[in-house]
Amino acid sequence: MNDTALAPAPQSGDPALRKPHVTVKNLDMAYGDFVIQHDLNFTIRHGDIFIIMGPSGCGKSTLLKHLVGLKPPARGEVVYDDRNFWQADPEEQQRLMRRFGILYQSSALWSSMTLAENVALPLGEFTDLSPAEIEGVASLKLALVGLAGFEDFYPSEISGGMRKRAGLARAMALDPEILFFDEPSAGLDPISSRLLDDLILELRDSLGATIAVVTHELASIFAIGDNSIFLDTESKTMIAQGDPRKLRDECPDPRVRNFLLRGGLEATAHPGAPAP
Amino acid sequence: MAQQPRTEGRSSEPAPGFTLSQAEGGTLVLRLSGEWKLTGGLPTPGAVEKQFDLSTQPRRLTFDTTELGSWDSGLLAFLAGLQELCRTRKLEFDTANLPEGARRLLKLAGTVPERAGARRTESRPSFLALVGLESIALWQSLGQMLQFLGEAVESFGRLAIGRARFRRSDLVDIMFDCGAAALPIVTLISFLVGLILAFVGAIQLTQFGAQIYVADLVGIAMAREMGALMTAIIMSGRTGAAFAAQLGTMQVNEEIDALTTFGLSPMDFLVLPRMIALILMMPLLVIYADLLGILGGALVGIGMLKLSVAEYVNATINGVSLTDFSVGIFKSSIFGILVAICGCMRGIQCGRSASAVGLAATSAVVTAIVFIIVTDGVFAVLTNALGI
Q1: Which of B111, B131, B157 is the last residue of a domain?
Q2: Whose C-alpha in A88, A238, B304, B358 is 20 to 30 A from the C-alpha of A190?
Q3: CA distance B307 to A256
Q4: Type and span of the H or E element at A27
């Protein structure tokens, strides 16, 4: 049940043939009567690095909240392998959630605990490891994100970039099957941001984790993404999906290409152009 | 509940284990077998170390993973421990036969070297050192308190010459919050305090047939002491804690830094309106509390002691002088300053974590109550000495 097992990396072979990990069907997101996005349909496959992109305010972070179980959608389904998350009973939901690792936008480290305690808390609650083993695993996770030796620091004593990395160490604590990143490179210098991208690739390749990233950092999108969806603010739905590099070069929708070319293409599209 | 599935899972999987054997040329081969998962029951590097001691002149550690099942960070933590062990024992750590993923992650964990001086050494000071440290901390906190007080006075100075910058709408909101919004709790407490005082007095005074003096007792006690004291304690728990939590959270979110860098003094912008609001609202609340306390006393006097309404009112008017009320009202203004200062001070001094906000709220209430009681004692002595 506690399937924190790391299957051998399944990234080999044709991406389209890999088993679906997360399937989103007819999802509508709304705050009260205010619809943010409607009719979202997409599939994240095992071993994917899946990018959720779109302009600011299009509802990327809200979509992430629906995916990880923090906010029930207005309509539609989120299916993990073959389990429908929002129709499962609360116990089952918790079990599913324990297989997620989430890096929050502002890191969301527990401020009254040291970095090691932040990583150790889920290990202590959900595994039978001894305190010494937990300490070892916590140190290892911190070393993986380049924070060796910072075990006894409090979140308020380290820089923003380090907090982000510590947040990632905590997200990896239970060896999750799927890692969600909310704007991982926001507030990082280019080199740290690049290192984080490398780390994301490494985690997928060595641990076989599925990774979903909310971002609008173009460099990062092209460096790591192998599948993506593009959420549009005006038509309030997804207007493109696929490999971001292909979308940049071949997407028929100028809004998407303009976004991926950093506004280099003069947008001539009118709102409501047909989605590809 | 969460334990159960795991034990089921484990029973079907071969348990993690290792055997250490010595090959030629000082090479040790560690054969790993079973499922190396975080679920627990993993061998420790210490167990391997014990076997190191038994081998002769080891120079190199290598692995055999042909029997290794699936693995996760549990294996990585074990390997990282071994790597460290090999470093201290000057053994070569040969990762060639490890699974590809494990080798890469181990390398990654070692890429960023530990920053020199980052690791903290734990030190436990002796009892004497502890006493000294605490005394120094106390002295420093006294200094900070005086500094805060000084800054508050300066802020009032700027207010007097019209150069204090804060939003009038904030002031109005805060005044509503610590004035009108506090009426229900003040009503309940002061009415009941008046009633309780009357009960205590009634039992004693009826023995001498002096029931009528219940009116004096309740009136004077409420006007001079209980009205102001009870309201101050309510306000320190209700409003002082809120001030501390609010400013503390602003401190955590760097909102106070943002004010400062805009050239807005947090003292003027945040603390001053709160002090003004409490200084203005406390006397009003206390007048209200006094009247309700007297009403509570009257209920007992009229209902239980069979005094007439006119008798009770007359006895109260004769017994309680305007001076009694003035003393209580004057004190309440001072208490208002104390509550506002303690709340704001603890909020501004707040550390940058969630638990620090809790600590700030607690310490705001405790500090305020201590100061209120001490000040009240000083007033009792002063009024006695001055014959007021």
Answers
A1: B111
A2: A238
A3: 86
A4: strand A20-31
pTM above 0.80, yes or no: no
Count the alpha carbons within 13 Å of A266 in the hemisphere toward its beta carbon. 1
| B81 in contact with chain A, both atoms CB, cutoff 8 A | yes
Domain definitions of chain A by residue range: 109-175
pLDDT in tens, A18-50: 889 999 999 999 988 888 999 999 999 999 999
Contacting residues for B55 by C-beta, under 8 A, at least 6 apart: B20, B22, B28
Q: How confident is the model at residue A146 (pLDDT cuts 50, 70, 90)?
A: confident
Our CA-based measurement puts residue B45 at a distance from the nearest CA of chain A, in whole angstroms, of: 10
Provide the 8-state DSSP code for A16.
G
What distances in angstroms separate CA A194 from CA A220, A222, B332, one per listed residue?
8, 12, 61
Q: Do A4 and B118 touch (CB under 8 A)?
A: no
CATH number at B55 reads: 3.30.750.24
Judgement on whether residues B174 and B312 belong to the same structural domain of the protein: yes
Question: B352 vs A152: CB contact, 8 Å cut-off?
Answer: no
**In-domain check, residue B32:** yes
Q: Rounded to 5 degrees, what angle do the CA atoms B171, B174, B180 make?
A: 120
Final residue in a domain of this structure, among B64, B94, B111: B111
Q: How many helices (H) and strands (E) does chain A have?
A: 9, 10
